[in-house]
Amino acid sequence: MQAIVVTPTRELALQVKDEIESLRGSKRVYVLAVYGGQPIAPQIDRLRRGVQIVVGTPGRVIDHLERRTLSLEKSDTSFLMRLTGCSIWALSTTSREF
């Protein structure tokens, strides 16, 4: 995984995913939207098969991080937006673990 985009709603997560896919052109870039309200097992399966970009809601992203089905270790820099307090975290995974 090379990037994580965190959005406040599942609708926005799906819109961002669709927009990223429309911009990739002929390049093979795999994008996955992760959000609650749907079974997590298919998301886990897709993450294990590999994606370059994950777009998701805060709760589901945190859920995947806690389950260790999503890792920040291989991404250069990940930006997480925390809705409470509207703070933005920039996590450099080259020197820290989540």
Any overview of this molecule?
The chain has helices at residues 10-23, 41-49, 58-67, and strands at residues 3-6, 31-34, 53-56, 77-82, 87-92. The chain has 98 residues and is an alpha/beta fold. 22% of the residues are buried. It has a three-stranded parallel sheet with strand order 1-3-2, with helices on both faces. The chain has a two-stranded antiparallel ribbon with strand order 4-5. Residues 77-98 have low confidence and may be disordered. The longest helix is centred in the first third of the chain and has 14 residues, at 10-23.
Main sheet summary: 3 strands, parallel
Question: Which CATH first-tier class would you pick?
Answer: Alpha Beta
Helix content: 25-40%
CATH superfamily: P-loop containing nucleotide triphosphate hydrolases
Query: Nearest-angstrom radius of gyration?
Result: 13 Å
What's the β-strand tally? Answer: 5
Domain module tally: 1
Task: Tell me the span between the first and last alpha carbons.
Answer: 15 Å
CATH-derived architecture: 3-Layer(aba) Sandwich
List low-confidence stretches. 77-98
At CATH level 3, the topology is Rossmann fold
Give the helix/strand class. Answer: alpha/beta
> How do the strands of the widest beta sheet line up side by side?
1-3-2
Mean pLDDT across residues: 78
